[in-house]
Design brief:
Layout: E1 5-6, E2 18-21, E3 31-32, E4 74-75, H1 79-84, E5 87-92, E6 95-101, H2 106-115, E7 118-121, E8 126-131, H3 135-142, E9 154-161, E10 168-178, E11 181-186, H4 191-207, E12 214-219, E13 222-227, H5 231-236, E14 239-240, H6 246-252, E15 265-270, E16 281-285, E17 293-298, H7 303-314, E18 320-322, H8 324-333, H9 360-365, H10 371-377, E19 390-397, E20 407-409, E21 415-425, E22 430-438, E23 447-452, E24 455-462, H11 485-506
Parallel strand pairs: 2-12, 4-6, 7-18
Antiparallel strand pairs: 1-3, 5-6, 7-13, 8-11, 8-12, 9-10, 10-11, 13-17, 14-15, 15-16, 16-17, 19-22, 19-24, 20-21, 20-23, 21-22, 23-24
Length: 508
């Protein structure tokens, strides 16, 4: 990778992205390589269920020493809390992140998430606000998502795509907050690449006549994932209703979380331990574990207080901190990709088994980066399309677990694919993996072999997710409307005020 030039602030870079930060620590200088943004010519090649005694949460009273920490690694707002609770901190995505906790290891955390609830610090993820009259068209140009049909306060999994090739720059969640306002989350490990990409694409979009796009990166904002079957109960107990909102409380108390379905979001206030009330936080129902849960975006000045409130109010019997180790095994059981392993710049959504992220209207209209390539791949060769030579699938592997890089072979010993993620499944007590395999071998039930430590191991192509997802979705055929038109108008006005408050505090 060529050496890049640094800029003092993002607004100095081409495209004029603004950085919103009210963190106590100054974020590291953003860097860019603007010359290769629009059409990359060189892309990287693809390369126990019993619980231990529950330990009470420890809240730090002073900052932990950072004398032995490399200066280039950043800390999330919750770093001191992790250290106080015995976390093993490791470099990940440019941050020091907890991989597990001394008294609550990876396996125990995994099972606890499936049976109770866990709280994951994901503040290293990059949170963006994209708004303005050109926001809709801009997002439709760089992602295959059906932005036009995305309703207010709903989200969709999508991907940033390279022009011409349709390769995946990064996977992302896009949430529509309003007609011209979007909340977008991208991966920490792709931060420099994504900021460089968005800078160039925004500049190119506006240069070619696109309407104005405002883009802010929410540096310093907290982001936690509350995951597990007890998540809704834990969150609902902490919803605060200020005095001026008592009329709305009568309408929404006890109903708000019940009507907040998977893929939707809401702004709420949280009761804090000192008796005060937080500023509005953005609560999105979903997550990376396959369990019911919420991802909560928190203004930086409230990040620690909101996290403490969740943990203390729930108590260790219901909620525990969890780290990257459990997050990885949970996401693999849920069949979810990890960028840089299961996805990369050379992989298209169709090859990655993510055809479903392409909006219905986009399949006919196209108009997104690489649409000629991607849409051609949707139809197999037998049906007159281009198809794909390989695709991402799941595997159950006998014997030793297959790790990333393990070669998949056919009955004659010929290579036909490779493993990109793999681990023993704590839930299934089997070795699970995902990877890419040649078309023709991709159907569920196909027997193959995987070379593990020089030995061939029997494996079977398996549908994903490996463990059934438990997302909270509306019951089909049931009318979800519980309000009159007058009540809906009052609620809409209240929600607009909440949104304005969140945007004001998170971008200070």
């Amino acid at each position: 990778m060529k050496r890049v030039r640094a800029v003092a602030k993002l607004s100095d870079a081409p495209g004029g992205c603004l950085v919103a930060s009210n963190a106590s620590r100054q974020p590291s200088t953003a860097v860019y390589r603007h010359s290769t943004l629009n059409s990359p010519t060189k892309l990287p090649s693809q390369t126990s269920s019993q619980f231990k005694p529950v330990i009470k949460l420890l809240i730090p009273t002073r900052h932990a020493s950072a004398s032995a920490i490399p200066t280039y690694l950043q800390k999330t707002p919750l770093y001191d809390m992790h250290v106080a609770n015995g976390a093993t901190m490791v470099p990940f995505g440019g941050y020091l992140m907890p991989v597990q906790y001394k008294s609550f290891g990876v396996g125990v955390s995994h099972h606890f998430t499936r049976s109770h609830a866990s709280l994951f610090d994901v503040s290293h993820m990059v949170q963006h606000l994209i708004s303005g009259p050109g926001a809709n068209a801009f997002l439709e140009s760089i992602t295959p998502a059906g932005i036009k049909t995305l309703a207010d306060r709903t989200s969709t999994l999508s991907a940033l795509l390279w022009p011409y090739t349709g390769g995946i720059v990064d996977d992302t969640i896009v949430t529509r907050l309003g007609p011209e306002t979007f909340y977008v989350v991208t991966n920490a490990g792709c931060r420099e690449k994504d900021l460089e990409y968005l800078t160039g694409q925004k500049a190119e979009f506006e240069k070619n006549g696109g309407e104005k796009v405002e883009w802010k990166v929410l540096n310093g904002a907290g982001l936690v994932a509350l995951q597990g079957p007890l998540s809704a109960q834990i969150l609902e107990e902490l919803i605060a209703w200020p005095e001026e909102n008592q009329d709305i409380k009568k309408l929404m108390e006890g109903v708000m979380i019940k009507k907040l379905y998977f893929g939707s979001c809401q702004f709420i206030k949280i009761k804090l331990l000192d008796g005060s009330i937080s500023d509005d936080v953005l609560v999105s129902r979903g997550g990376y574990t396959g369990e019911d849960g919420f991802e909560i975006s928190i203004p930086a000045h409230n990040a620690v207080a909101v996290t403490e409130a969740l943990l203390r109010n729930a108590g260790p019997e219901r909620l525990q901190l969890a780290g990257l180790g459990a997050r990885d095994s949970l996401r693999l059981e849920a069949g979810m990709c990890l960028y840089g392993h299961d996805l990369n710049d050379a992989t298209t959504p169709v090859e990655a088994g993510l055809s479903w992220i392409i909006g219905k209207d986009r399949r006919t209209e196209g108009g997104f980066h690489g649409s000629d390539v991607v849409l051609g791949q949707l139809e197999s060769v037998s049906k007159g399309g281009v198809g794909v030579k390989e695709r991402r699938v799941g595997f159950i592997v006998e014997g030793a677990p297959a790790r990333e890089g393990s070669v998949i072979v056919d009955p004659d010993g010929e290579p036909i694919g490779r493993i990109t993620s793999g681990c023993p499944s704590p839930t299934l007590k089997k070795n699970i993996a995902m990877g890419y395999i040649n078309t023709g071998f991709h159907k569920a039930g196909t027997d193959v072999e995987v070379v593990v430590r020089g030995k061939k191991r029997k494996a079977k192509v398996t549908k994903m997710p490996f463990v059934p997802s438990k997302y909270f979705k509306p019951t089909k055929g049931v009318d979800s409307s519980v309000y009159s038109n007058t009540e809906l108008a009052a609620i809409t006005a209240y929600e607009q005020r909440q949104e304005e408050n969140y945007l004001k505090n998170v971008t200070i």
